[in-house]
Amino acid sequence: MGPYYSEPEKRSGGLPSQKRSGDLPSNNFSSLSFLYKSRSNSFQTPNQRITSFSLPQIPIPQQTMSRGCFPTFLLLSVLTIIIALTTATPSNNFIKSSCSTTQYPTLCVQSLSVYASTIQQDPHQLVQTALSVSLNSTQSTKAFVTKCNKFRGLKPREYAALHDCAEEISDSVDRLSKSLKELKLCEVKGEDFRWHISNVETWVSSALTDESTCGDGFAGNALNGKIKNAIRARMVNVAQVTSNALSLINQYAEKHY
Description:
Elements: H1 29-38, E1 43-44, E2 49-50, H2 62-86, H3 90-99, H4 105-113, H5 116-119, H6 123-148, H7 156-183, H8 191-216, H9 226-256
Antiparallel strand pairs: 1-2
Helix pairs in contact: 3-4, 4-9, 6-7, 6-9, 7-8, 8-9
């Protein structure tokens, strides 16, 4: 995956309602100039003699300095994260090597590198993390599609496309959830492993089909505008993440057969 700032100092923009004897007009430099010209060029203080007069320097508000420092701090934080993610470590090298066999290797590395400390070099943990990322992305997209389906003023074709997509994405969530539970049983060996991993492969493949079907529903003219583009973009991302997870699962299964 912030700093809070104090409220800015309030400044009075007008003159005081009442003036006491000896007060100087606020923000009136001409009056100040006249006053000091009319007097001697020097005057005595308890500790020293000041031979020239200059207006005091206005201090810079603390909030202004904080705002100036915050972008720099944020930039340094982002650079630190990027360097940490791209640093060649055994865990990151393992993820990159595993993702190289997927259809979308760049997305694969981006989505899994943030979990490098958890994955380490464990093939089972890698597959489980990839499947969890796919499930989370699909659940988020399901919520978005469901919200869009409740918009008022939808045309019949628009409503039908959203309704069908909501059903497909809901089925995908169910299958990915079952796959994740089944995967936890794949730490066994022999025939039991083959049975469980086969179920995982079947369910993830079906989930990918559901996601692709939903995305295809927005390929034509059933929907136009921002909703169509937003849903299609989300579905493409979900399908790619799930495709990567399936590739890693197949790779994991082949090494254990």
